[in-house]
């Protein structure tokens, strides 16, 4: 079996060690003898190359980098939406989800129009409003998810389901206990940095969905020894601060 992973703007949107998520997806596939190819989805990428992707990943970026990426990303929006509508999974962490909603209002008041794939809006209220920073715990499909958030923007969902429910932390906005969003098989989350190493169950969900959509049948992934990953998960789950 083979998978092609598209990586959105790796040179612009790889802040906070987000590339660790790519490493996890690659290794968890390779350990199962699944061949993996990475395609950078950037200014030079064609629609045909995007259409060949079985999974899409987007990482975090600061406002300036998001501004540089969004004009080009808008040109790719219809192609990406076609992928997602047929079930191709995606993981978008930290700043990437803000570009997939209707718009993101930056800290200096600039409005970046997004792809509108996720029915949500994001706003940065400036320096007068404290950032959402700290370790997080969420509830997802009756399982725990751990992460770390550091964002000034607040996201408000409309007709879209949240990815998870906040147990600890701020999540989307610190008000309604929602965290991230889900569109078809695409996950958006404010958990940035290397999110998947501490959450192997989320990584395997993405891999299994990608294989299922590509090969047209449910795929049972071979189990791996995740003892170290779950030790990290448990440590973060019970960390007091």
Task: Describe what this molecule looks like in 3D.
Helix 1 (19-30) packs across helix 6. The model has no long low-confidence stretch (mean pLDDT 93). This protein is of the alpha/beta class. The chain contains seven helices and 14 strands. The protein is globular.
Give me some keywords for this one.
241 residues; 7 helices; four-stranded mixed β-sheet; six-stranded mixed β-sheet; Rossmann fold; alpha/beta
Q: Tally of extended strands? A: 14
Could you please say which CATH topology applies here?
Rossmann fold
CATH superfamily: Class I glutamine amidotransferase (GATase) domain
What is the H/E string?
Answer: EHEHEHHEHEEEEEEEEEEHH
Look at the structure and give the CATH class.
Alpha Beta
Largest sheet: 6 strands, mixed
Label the overall shape: globular
Mean pLDDT: 93
In terms of per-residue confidence, which ranges show pLDDT below 50 for 5 or more consecutive residues? none
The proportion of residues forming helix, as a percent range, comes to 25-40%
End-to-end gap: 42 Å
Radius of gyration: 17 Å
Strand order of the largest sheet: 2-1-3-4-14-13
Q: Architecture, CATH level 2?
A: 3-Layer(aba) Sandwich
Number of helices: 7
Structural class by secondary-structure content: alpha/beta
Pathway: Cell wall biogenesis; peptidoglycan biosynthesis
Active site: 94, 192
Pfam families: GATase_3 (PF07685)
Family: Belongs to the CobB/CobQ family. GatD subfamily.
Architecture blueprint of SSEs:
Blueprint lengths: L1 E7 L10 H12 L4 E7 L5 H5 L3 E4 L4 H13 L1 H9 L4 E4 L2 H5 L2 E3 L5 E3 L6 E5 L7 E9 L2 E9 L1 E5 L6 E5 L9 E2 L1 E3 L2 E4 L10 H16 L11 H11 L4
Parallel strand pairs: 1-2, 1-3, 3-4, 4-14, 5-7
Antiparallel strand pairs: 5-6, 7-10, 8-9, 8-11, 11-12, 13-14
Helix pairs in contact: 1-6
């Amino acid at each position: 079996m083979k998978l092609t992973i598209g990586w959105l703007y790796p040179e612009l949107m790889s802040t906070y060690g987000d590339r660790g998520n790519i490493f996890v997806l690659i290794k968890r596939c390779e350990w199962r003898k699944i061949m993996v190819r990475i395609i950078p989805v950037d200014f030079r990428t064609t629609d045909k190359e995007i259409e060949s992707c079985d999974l899409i990943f987007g990482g975090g970026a600061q406002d300036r980098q998001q501004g540089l990426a969004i004009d080009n990303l808008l040109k790719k929006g219809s192609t990406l939406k076609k992928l997602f509508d047929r079930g191709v999974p995606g993981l978008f962490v930290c700043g990437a989800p803000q570009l997939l909603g209707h718009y993101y209002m930056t800290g200096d008041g600039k409005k970046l129009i997004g792809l509108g794939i996720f029915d949500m809006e994001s706003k940065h209220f400036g320096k007068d409003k404290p950032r959402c920073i700290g370790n997080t715990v969420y509830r997802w499909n009756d399982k725990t998810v751990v992460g770390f958030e550091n964002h000034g923007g607040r996201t408000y969902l409309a007709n879209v389901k949240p990815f998870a429910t906040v147990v600890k932390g701020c999540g989307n906005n610190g008000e309604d206990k929602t965290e991230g969003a889900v569109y078809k098989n695409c996950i958006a989350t404010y958990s940035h940095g290397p999110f998947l190493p501490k959450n192997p169950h989320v990584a395997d969900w993405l891999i299994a969905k990608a294989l299922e959509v590509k090969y047209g049948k449910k795929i049972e992934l071979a189990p791996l020894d995740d003892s170290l990953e779950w030790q990290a998960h448990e440590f973060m789950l019970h960390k007091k601060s």
